[in-house]
Amino acid sequence: MQDVLIERRQVVRIHLDQLERSIAPRAPREGEAIYASIALRFLMDDNALGAVANEFGIVIEIDVPDFTGTPLTQAIVFAAGGYPYGDHVTEAYYAYRAAGPQSPHRRQFEENLKTSPRSPSVKTLKYTKFLATPCLGFAGEIVDRATLIRYIANKCGGAHHHSSRTKFDAIDNRLTDIGHGLRVRGDGISVVFMETLGTAWFLLQSPGVIALRNTLASGCGP
What we know:
elongated
């Protein structure tokens, strides 16, 4: 029996390097986001990144915006932000249904705005919990990072998304609506691609990922 053509740890290194290239431009575009989604999809599926990190005794923890207590399900549109793009760090974006001064919903509207910080604090999460954090929302439906990765990788990269066609169609419709409707950052790039790039950026800032990349690059390990 021959050995595998290429070891998983080497493939993980290749995909982490691809993420680095994807976020390298000062203002990356759709092309970089698509390649980032494909790399993220591989690292996520079958826990490839986590398994290789575990081989070296490396724990991967990631700092990510904390939306605890934020009424995301009340937002018409939401985008997490918190990553650099161009010459600035993107802010969180929220759009709530406006209520007039005399509306019975005015108090709730003002409370929603007050509890929706543009620059939220961050929390540190293990890799799998990071993938479950919210990054987009539309009409109260929240999209986590794992779902976003699979959506872009499927629609633009050919990766299989979901065994249920019905569930995929619902996700497709939701993210297509967000993607067409929200281009608040960069020079016209859809927020769907922006949040994909942001997910890649957050991951690469992890001290555990940095340590793993250095270990893989040096050829060290068991």
